[in-house]
Amino acid sequence: MNPCPCGWLGDPGGRCRCPAEATARYQRKLSGPLLDRLDILIEVPALSPAELTEPRLHEAEPSCAVRARVGAARHRQIARQGVANRLLSARQVHEVCALDADGTRLLERAGARLGWSARANFRVLRVARTIADLAGEERPTARHVAEAIQYRRALRSD
């Protein structure tokens, strides 16, 4: 979705003229329960024309390498639990996404600070499990949880 009614909030050129209250009202149209049902909520800033032509953008990992890594992660998920991580039930999340003490503490602190629901908490665990699968690691760690927490960033707090 757009970040504000005009769609230019955060534009480096300053094109947005929306008052803060109008932006807040626009963002409140998405309810908490709806946002809870999304696994990843991130803000993607617009790139300037100069950034789009930078050579570093063309040096990114090739799609075929990403596709192979995703395929291997999916294969690990199916072999481990019979379904993709996105289809894990609450019981399966507790079994398959078990964290070490550091990961548990980090998740608890973030959930308390951000006021997450149980549903949001489970989604972070599933995303952390997927990040670990993509890295080829046996179980999610605090590092994976931290990355998953970053992917819960929405236009407003959960």
UniProtKB/TrEMBL annotation:
Domain Mg chelatase-related protein C-terminal residues, every copy: 61-152
Domain Magnesium chelatase ChlI-like catalytic per the UniProt entry, residue ranges: 1-51
GO MF term (any one): ATP binding
One Pfam short name: Mg_chelatase
SUPFAM superfamilies, sorted: P-loop containing nucleoside triphosphate hydrolases
Protein name: Competence protein ComM
Organism of provenance: Pararobbsia alpina
Gene from which the chain derives: comM_2
